[in-house]
Amino acid sequence: MLLALLWLLRPALAAQPSAPEPIPAPLRSLEFGQLNFLHTTDAHGWLAGHLQEPSYSADWGDYVSFATHIRAKVEAQGQDLLVIDTGDRVEGNGLYDSSEPKGLYLSEILRHQHIDLLTSGNHELYKQNTSEAEFFTTVPNFRGKYLASNIDIIHPTTKDLVPLAPRYKKFTTKQQGIRIVAFGFLFDFTGNYNNTVVQPVEDTIKEDWFQEAIRDKEVDLFLVIGHVPVHSPEYQAIFKEIRGLRWDIPIQFFGGHQHIRDYAQFDAKAVGLASGRFMETIGFMSIDGLTTDTQPNAMGSSPVFKRRYIDNNLFSYHHHSGLDGESFLTEKGQNVSQLIAESRTALHLDQVYGCAPHTLWTSRVKYPSNDSIYTWLETQVIPDSLKDEWRSETPALAIVNTGAIRFDIFQGPFTQDSTFIVSPFTSGFRYIKNVPYNKAQLIMDILNKQPQVLRASQHDMGSPHTTLAPPEQLAYVEDTVADRDAAWDRRIPFRGGDFQAPLSGDAPSDKLVPGYTTKDDAGTDGDDTIHSPISFYRVPNCIQALVSANASVVPETIDLVYIEFIERYVALAAKFAQLDVDFSKESDVYMPSITFTDLILDWVKEHWKCE
Ligand SMILES: *[C@@H]1O[C@H](CO)[C@@H](O)[C@H](O)[C@H]1NC(C)=O
Ligand SMILES: *[C@@H]1O[C@H](CO)[C@@H](O)[C@H](O)[C@H]1NC(C)=O
Ligand SMILES: *[C@@H]1O[C@H](CO)[C@@H](O)[C@H](O)[C@H]1NC(C)=O
Ligand SMILES: *[C@@H]1O[C@H](CO)[C@@H](O)[C@H](O)[C@H]1NC(C)=O
Ligand SMILES: *[C@@H]1O[C@H](CO)[C@@H](O)[C@H](O)[C@H]1NC(C)=O
């Protein structure tokens, strides 16, 4: 009774207390169908939403409320809803990275969403204890929902190699009894720690269990979810394997990893949706005209697929659910928002370490430029901070991959949360001594201009979807030279002005809020919110900073310093540059026990005083 009373007295929480109000904007509605989906991917711990960006300011609690309303709404029409998440839930936000052990609060928050199907991403597998936390916590929290078609794990106690989760699942939907066979894949990832085994997708689909599953005659839809780009060789292979046997069964793919909004049309009955990153986007799909046991359809007619990329904010949520303010918030959703707020407090995520004098962008400005986060690192942070006491005054050239930086720094307070948002990685530095300066430059050239040489030459770097640059650029890096620009235009999340399609009949563009203006296989009408475009610039794979006592002299030899995470790439590039060094024997730790993240944080504390 008292609890209930307290609950009533609490101010109506929506989003996090410090989150900005969403800005009203023209919206495209959701087109519901027989079977509907909500999809998240690559959340990377952002369950509190974006506290400095109104367009993405709703939190996981609001998403819980939203999914509840959408489920009720479609079920009232006799339709079905499935909620999907395709991995990389971990690493990249203080809510995950700040706790010890990591993820303590996050997994507790995550479990409150009614997720129907989920998979692992590559980030769940980089470290032994991350995959084991997945095995012992997230898989049981979502028992019967978590799928791992191509991931095995060495059982932490029995030491047997076992599936991380069931390979696939057959089920029928609640309202219409639509018969679904679902799979959960990870792309052909090779960077996992050795306690997990990721079997290449192309091999997995030849296994008996998969072959049997796709021969099932009692199926209305194949549902392939995964941490796999929707335009990828892996999904092509799965599509061909299923379609080769089952010419008429619809296939719905959900994917991720590239951090982009994307939609792939495989054929008239098979499509795939990718739903961005960092809780910026909630992907929506509907399928109408499915032939089911109880609802026979005209022979051969194709189902109708509709897609929508929802901006994660309350303005969009209210519109799509047809509710507002008080009526939108569910008790459970509010509880989850409250849990997030309490977790953030317990983790001191609002603790301020300094104040950024102006915004520094990863890809919204040209590199190099004064507003580029990479220029800031090259010209200020690294030169001021890179110093190993054992190497005294030896000049050093530091190589940092641009993918080590994950997000922009906004003008204003730089907090405990910002630290992990900008660079969540725990890699420190290593170095090789006495490297001729010109060889080091050659290595930089190879890393930046010839990544395909590196990839083609060594299989364990052959994972087509890992790169030194931020994942948003993967679509570009992967394609052949001839296709590059077309691929770039098709897939990048933010587009330059010259690419924007006219939005006839919509509000004048000077009133629009800048944001996603996605172009995908189905056109330019995918985004729910009509935005003005944001420019997006390519960045190199790696940046460099020369740290030397005498800036007016180019040193003959240097300590070649690099982030540990990219050692394989640097070692291979060194081989191509004919630098005769055995990295496994001759490299050593530089600045022991300092990570790149520490380096940035220490610099901020010293240089960015708040007024
Ligand atoms: C994994 O181990 C590291 C180092 O001890 C620790 O900081 C981290 O919190 C652990 N992560 C998990 C998920 O247990
Ligand atoms: C995994 O790698 C560690 C070194 O990081 C090594 O000691 C261990 O033997 C390897 N285990 C297997 C099963 O290969
Ligand atoms: C919300 O939290 C209150 C207070 O802890 C609790 O009594 C209530 O059962 C929770 N409601 C739901 C739907 O989880
Ligand atoms: C960039 O910053 C430097 C140092 O503060 C300044 O000298 C230079 O004029 C700036 N360049 C531009 C284009 O603003
Ligand atoms: C830097 O090197 C130049 C050229 O050798 C020399 O003239 C200058 O004195 C040096 N400066 C410092 C600070 O050592």
TrEMBL record:
One Gene Ontology biological process: nucleotide catabolic process
Gene3D superfamilies: 3.60.21.10, 5'-Nucleotidase, C-terminal domain
Domain Calcineurin-like phosphoesterase: 36-260
Gene Ontology MF annotations: hydrolase activity
GO cellular component labels: cytosol; extracellular region
Putative 5'-nucleotidase C-terminal domain location: 359-570
Identification of the protein by name: Calcineurin-like phosphoesterase domain-containing protein
